[in-house]
Amino acid sequence: MTRHSSFMSSDLHEQASRLLDQLGRGLRWPMLLLGVLLVISTAWSGWHEFIRHATSDRMRAVSGQIEHFSARIVRRAEAGLPSGPGIMVEQLELEFSARYEFAGRGYQASRYSLAHGNRFTPGSPEAQAMSEVIAAWTPGGRISLWVDPEQPALAVIDKRVSPEDSLPVALLTALGGLLTLGLAWRGFRTRSPCTSK
């Protein structure tokens, strides 16, 4: 029984290996391109995430005065397939301005979130948190802002950087890129039966 199961396991391993070789040979260039794009995308996102974290860590709290604000649901087009139209999605958009002072100079804030700006998915935790905050706003009222001392013109109400699932998504993207590159490399190294003679 052990010898039979070992033979079956070896046979399955050989079939899987041949399938990966065929897949790698047939799609090695597209997979190489896809793998490179995934790795570059992960690196680019990671760099921006690092910059946002650094900015968030050095921000200081100041008091500001609300000038005006409004929140509305808008429909925006997001890119669809290359041969098809964009997809219309709903977003909760906040428009506001608030005056504040930092180091003796006056500035105007118009950005709510350090990570998401002023656009949110309706019903998301970020949108709900934003709605709860602005429910207490009145023109002329005071609000708390976070200011970047190195860029005093940058002030936000919510300096949190990213949702909790951003790191797992980035890791999965990086892993997918590395696996795709590995499969492409396997395709370049493996010769087809016709050319191996």
Summary keywords:
197 residues, alpha+beta, 28% strand, elongated
* Contiguous uncertain segments of 5+ residues: none
Strand % is 25-35%
Radius of gyration: 26 Å
Structure classification: alpha+beta
Distance between the ends? 38 Å
Largest beta-sheet details:
6 strands, antiparallel
- Name the helicity range: 40-55%
Order of helices and strands: HHEEEEHEEH
The pLDDT mean sits at 79
The global form is elongated
- Number of strand segments: 6
Count of helical regions:
4
Short account of what is shown:
It contains 4 helices and 6 strands; from the N terminus they run H-H-E-E-E-E-H-E-E-H. The protein has 197 residues and is an alpha+beta fold.
Give a description of the structure.
46% of the residues lie in helices and 28% in strands. With 197 residues, the chain is of the alpha+beta class. Strands 1, 2, 3, 4, 5 and 6 form a 6-stranded antiparallel beta sheet that branches. A hairpin with a 2-residue loop joins strand 2 and strand 3 (105-109). Helix 2 runs antiparallel to helix 4. The chain starts with a helix and ends in an 8-residue tail after the last helix.
